Amino acid sequence: MRDFISKIAFLLVVAIVWELIRLTGRYPELLFPGIGSIARTFWMERADLLDKTLFSLRIIGIGLLMAISLAMLATIISMSGKVFAEIVSNLMAIMHPLPGIAILPVAILWFGIGVRAILFVIVFSALWPLINHFYTGFRSIPVNQLEVGKNLGLVGWELALKVMLPASFPHILSGLRTGWARAWQASVAAELVFGAAGGQGGLGWHLYKKRFMMETPGVFAGMLIIVLIGIAVEYLIFAGIENRTVRKWKTIIN
Fold it and tell me: Is the Cα dihedral 167, 171, 251, 161 positive or negative?
């Protein structure tokens, strides 16, 4: 919680510095809107911003769940034998460095301009870091922990849930953090490039429209929501999970 408060305090400092720079008059309002203009736009368009935010979170949640499922399947397959492990490793080496936005032309050709194309980009962007962390986590499990579990009579799913999952959970949590960040970036970037079909879209679509209409305060209002959601998810969700699991387990072990 302290880290969360410090990030909010940092944003307030940035806002004060921003306003001081604006008051110098060196930059036009169109390019450098004041905090008051951004706040008024935020309040006046709160219903639309809420709708766009919920749309983004919904589509990112769906895409992230799909990516997690595929990553788990790929990890299980890679653990089945050396040949499968090499195939998955080669795929990661090829696909992981490729930015999700780079496959947008393919997504448009296959799925058209709309939600399915954005989902495809989200899944592609989040999948490879998830596989990388999941695979690394399960491969780094100490052999002695597996042996202890087997000696206690744990086999199959019991061994996986009670020994393998806790041992690899730090890597899994890191993968989820990276996957979430990649999914969020991919959603906004995809909508910024081609907008959204049928008038539907999330915060990326909101930024796209406001930029097109030169409504700069609306652009910064949308950016502020993206930043606040990122901070909230990191420090209220992921940090909370880490405190209740990884750090707690380390304290018990020590």
Answer: negative
